[in-house]
Structures are given as structure tokens and as C-alpha cells.
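Homework help board

Subject: predicted structure for assignment chain

Our instructor gave us this sequence and asked us to write out the predicted structure in C-alpha cell form, then describe one feature. I got the C-alpha cells but I'm not sure how to describe them. Can anyone check?
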Amino acid sequence: MDPSALGKLVSELLLAIHLLSGYAIPPEPPRVEFLPHAELEERACGRPCQVYGWFPPGQTVYLDDRLNPLVSVAARGILLHELVHFLQQEEGTFAVAPDCDAWLEREHEAFDIQIRWLTEQRAPLRALSPSAKIPIKFACAEDEAEPKG
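My C-alpha cell output:
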């Protein structure tokens, strides 16, 4: 993937998030690293799971290497969602190790911004996920730190 084109896209998506949310654009964007799906599953979930992007605390967004955000609006939407998490971190909006309820709030905000951006792109909501499953309904199990969804 062309690094300069990807960098330009990241800048454009950070601006879009700023306009949709008010989050400030930091001087340095995060790195974007593409991983094989199995490695992304292991890092993000510790087991097989339906993951296409992941942003752990730090400065790197991880995307499934089967995605090409330069050509696919669905892939751009996934990248945008993970960039929202980067901006949430940079502004300190949510705790680094949130409890389940805070994790849900963080995810709902990222999905809300992603849906609004996809709507502006006139993309179908199935573009939220390459598998066409829209992962918006999550719930916390009582007395558990991990979300169930």
C-alpha cells in the first residue's frame, strides 16, 4: 500500500472526525499497521473473533491486511472507527483500562461517528463490517469487566 496515500487518507479521516465530534487533531497521527487476520485476532481477542481493526493504547492502529482503505469505503469506515479511539485516547476522554460500561460508551461513540461518516459518504450501513454484520448491540454481564456482544 502506498504510504503517502495512506498518510493522506489518515489526515483526511482525522479531519472528518474532528468535524463530526470536535476532537482536536494532534500534531502526529498514529501509525497504521496491517496484520494477517489470525495475528489480529490473537492480539485483539486472544482467540478467533470477528475483528477487522484494533487500537490498543499507544500510537498504532492495526488493520486486517485483507482491507484496503484506499479503495474500499467499508475499510475506510473501519479505519475511521479506530482513529476515533486514537483521538479518544489523545484527549483522555475515556480511561486507558475502562470497565465494561466505559468500554461500551467508548465503542458507541466510535460507532456513532462511523455511522454518521458513512451516511455522509452515502455508503450503506452494511459497510460497517466486511461481513455485513453490524456489531452495535453490546451488553455488559453483571459483575464482569468484559463486554458481551
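Reply (TA_rk): Your C-alpha cells look well-formed. For the description, you could write something like this. Confidence is low (pLDDT under 50) at residues 132-136, 143-149. That's the kind of observation they're looking for.
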